[in-house]
Amino acid sequence: MTGSAPAPTAPDVVLLTVPADGAYLSVLRTAAAGLAARLRFTLDEIEDLRIAVDEACGLLLRVARPAAELECRFAIEGEDLGVEVAVPTRSAATPPTTSSFPWKVLASLASAASVTADDQTMTINLTARRTSK
Length: 133
What we know:
By secondary structure, the protein is α+β, with helices and mostly antiparallel strands. 32% of the residues lie in helices and 31% in strands. The chain has a single domain (21-129), classed as Histidine kinase-like ATPase, C-terminal domain (Heat Shock Protein 90). Strands 1-2-3-5-4 form a five-stranded antiparallel β-sheet, with helices on one face. A hairpin with a 3-residue loop joins β4 and β5. It is globular, with a radius of gyration of 16 Å.
């Protein structure tokens, strides 16, 4: 075909599932750091992402059902690293307010951050963008 646009490339995706227990968060922090290094983030950007992932998981662990699993999806798209962390929640779990201190820390460390919740799952989405060229 002449003049057709190139097909969009699918993002590289890494899926990790760990018990919803603080003892396993180092696995997710390490994965985040490794993927950010692959994108040539600076050491400071990598550390910010590691802390953001830790904060997001910490917020989710507070509302997780007993014996739940924390699901983390990393998606590399161009120079961005998207992180989606989700956990099944106890009934009536409310998302963190954007004015809370933990959320402000999280939002300041990521290029973008959002939270969604329904009656069964809470999800935090982060985007980390390499700022240095």
